[in-house]
Design brief:
27% of the residues lie in helices and 18% in strands. It is α/β, with parallel strands linked by helices.
């Protein structure tokens, strides 16, 4: 009998200890959450309020109630009093929450810790891809920045090494490049002579949390540089086909193709490229490509191929960019910068879009004037939207969010199903499944 009488007192001590163990900042003062047993009468509930010195404020979804503490007692004391009542199923403090986000210390142009956020709207903010949450989730999955995945970049090369007149971009990791190839000069040194490929690579894998420059969405991946574009940004289809097969043979997990054929080209005109894309998909490699920059309703190859995730571009307003190709076959959109497209129609609220205002660009460190000098440069285009999706695919693979060896179709489904719908309800020709949300893709 004595032991039974001690139980409520012991429970009260335990509750108060638990509340005290939590940081004062983690508990909302002056209120608690309570749920009554389903058979508790109105009279019993009123009695609970009177004994605990609380007042009912609101009913929460699911049937619990928010109570205000009216008698001046602490949250811990009030919770203990509530738990002593037989009419109460449970009583808990109302805990504060915060975004589980990893905020790197890269300085951007602001020269302050975290200053990258002022420039990289594409990673952070309402028009961004929810990068901070994605970084935190990847760290919790023991795959920080997508560590363990390899991304092949088919482009103008990358400023990745010190070789003759070439230099590595200072904000790219020296140790995170695999062997690549240059099909323009036919050698094993795919150095960038144009700047395009280095910028694209920066969005994927820029050094992050190094107190310098900007951040990369999948900063932990290995990059396989594959040069298929010359110093003027031009290339040929046969080299694209060769590069795709090379990437597959050398164990790339994702291939980024920020390249496009003319929109009038058809699959029958580029059979070697189409065959290489099929081969890559069959071997389990995720393919991502730019929809094109002509502002038409026709997707350019290789993005138009069924094996490829096609990426359109959005602006800092979260609107379709005026240059971005859209239409049938568009899978998803990501930040590409530039001006808003002139969207007509009243089927959705596009009042936030303003084609008359100059939009913001996507920034990364890249070549400036010659291959020895680098600076933060802003570019616009579907080319620069594409690496966001590539990085997201690499993070999915590295974190094993979809299992150890997810098929390309599973990666595509996850990215599209977690995209934020920003146009007419559901998938549409302007935005595909919506704006990439990497944090949601890596989430539950």
């Amino acid at each position: 009998m004595h032991f039974r009488r001690l139980l409520p007192a012991i429970a009260a001590v335990l509750v108060m200890t638990a509340c005290a163990a939590s940081s004062d900042a983690s508990v909302v003062p002056g209120r608690v959450i309570v749920r009554y047993h389903s058979d508790a009468t109105h009279t019993q509930r009123v009695a609970v309020l009177e004994r605990s010195g609380t007042a009912s404020q609101s009913i929460l979804p699911g049937g619990s109630r928010e109570l205000a503490i009216a008698d001046g007692e602490s949250v811990a004391q009030t919770v203990a009093e509530l738990r002593r009542s037989k009419a109460v199923a449970y009583a808990v403090p109302d805990y504060r929450v915060h975004a589980a986000e990893f905020i790197p210390n890269d300085r951007g142009r602001a020269r302050i810790s975290g200053g990258w956020r002022r420039l990289q709207w594409n990673f952070n903010g309402p028009a961004g891809v929810n990068a901070p949450l994605a970084w935190e989730l990847a760290r919790k999955a023991r795959a920080p920045g997508g560590r363990g995945a390899t991304v092949a970049v088919l482009d103008s090369g990358v400023a990745y090494e010190r070789y003759h007149r070439f230099r590595r971009a200072p904000d790219l990791y020296a140790s995170r490049f695999t062997r690549g190839h240059d099909w323009v000069d036919d050698d094993k040194h795919p150095n960038d002579e144009e700047s395009h490929g280095t910028h694209v690579t920066g969005t994927i894998a820029q050094k992050t949390n190094n107190r310098s420059g900007l951040t990369g969405l999948a900063y932990g991946v290995k990059i396989m540089p594959l040069r298929v574009l010359d110093e003027y940004g031009n290339g040929v289809g046969s080299d694209i086909a060769r590069a795709i097969r090379y990437a597959v043979r050398h164990h790339a997990n994702v291939i980024n193709m920020s390249v496009e054929f003319d929109t009038y080209e058809r699959a029958r005109n580029i059979p070697d490229v189409i065959s290489a894309l099929h081969y890559a998909t069959k071997k389990g490699v995720v393919l991502v490509a730019a929809s094109g920059n002509e502002g038409t309703s026709r997707i350019a190859y290789p993005a138009r191929a069924k094996d490829v995730i096609s990426v359109g571009a959005t602006t800092s307003n979260g609107c379709l960019a005026d240059y971005s190709n859209a239409g049938r076959g568009l899978d998803i959109v990501a930040p590409g910068g530039g001006d808003d497209a002139p969207l007509g129609g009243n089927e959705w609220d596009n009042s936030h879009c303003d084609p008359s205002v100059n939009g913001r660009s996507v920034y990364q460190q890249t070549i400036w004037h010659d291959v020895r000098h680098f600076r933060l440069v802003g570019f616009d285009g579907t080319s620069f939207a594409t690496p966001h999706v590539t990085a997201a695919a690499a993070l999915l693979i590295a974190t094993r969010r979809l299992g150890r060896h997810p098929k390309p179709a599973a990666v595509r489904r996850r990215l599209l199903s977690t995209a934020r719908d920003i146009g007419p309800r559901g998938a549409d020709a302007r935005y595909g499944a919506g704006l990439l949300d990497v944090g949601a893709a890596l989430g539950p």
